[in-house]
Write a structure and sequence with these properties.
By secondary structure, the protein is mainly alpha-helical. It is built from nine helices and no strands. About 70% of the residues lie in helices and about 0% in strands. The longest helix is centred in the C-terminal third of the chain and has 29 residues, at about 120-150.
């Protein structure tokens, strides 16, 4: 495994409308019957597409849900708005990220995908590149913008900033029953904007 996402499968080019219908169906079904209860056949029926279409575009139901969550994160955790400060950008990013992290369906899906990533090494690689690294790259946009503005405090390295943000999120989602909440946003912003 070379760490790259699988090449596109042969066949007709993806219809964005069909893709979004499939992703929506996977997410809705996960909310209704749980990840374990979702099957490709149900996703196909709900989305109005064929099973062959789904299998042509994704190797498994985990990959469909992975794409759904990555797309949702890209939509709801925007990084293109510049608040004018690292603290402001970080606060917006964390607030939006944590809002998704309080959605019961998102949390259940993330837990299921993390578990699947531990059991299936090929999916695990796709999960790391298609979701985890993608979220780290989104956070890196804020760090790079702060560095260009000159308001990035001296402190943890870029990689450690991402480890702190996402380590806290994953720890709370996987190992505790504590929410990712507004006080946590405040604590992380205060911690990450200190000068060392």
């Amino acid at each position: 495994m070379n760490g790259q996402p699988p090449p596109p499968r042969p066949g007709r080019k993806r219809s964005e409308e069909s893709r979004l219908a499939i992703l929506t169906a996977a997410f809705e079904l996960t909310a209704e019957v749980s990840y374990a209860g979702v099957g490709i056949e149900a996703i196909a029926a709900r989305s109005g597409t064929g099973k062959q279409t789904i299998y042509r575009w994704w190797p498994s139901k985990a990959d469909v849900l992975l794409d759904a969550l990555a797309t949702k994160a890209d939509l709801y955790v925007a990084v293109d708005r510049d608040t004018g400060s690292y603290a402001g950008d970080l606060r917006e990013f964390l607030t939006a990220t944590f809002a998704l992290g309080r959605n019961a369906t998102v949390v259940a899906a993330l837990r299921a995908l993390m578990a699947q990533a531990q059991l299936d090494s090929e999916f695990g690689q796709r999960f790391r590149t298609g979701f985890l690294q993608r979220r780290r790259d989104a956070l890196a946009v804020l760090v790079d913008r702060a560095r260009a503005r000159g308001d990035l405090p001296s402190g943890p390295s870029d990689a450690t900033v991402a480890d702190l943000v996402f380590g806290v999120v994953w720890y709370r989602l996987l190992a505790t029953d504590r929410d990712v909440d507004d006080p946590l946003v405040d604590e992380l912003v205060a911690t990450l904007t200190q000068t060392y």
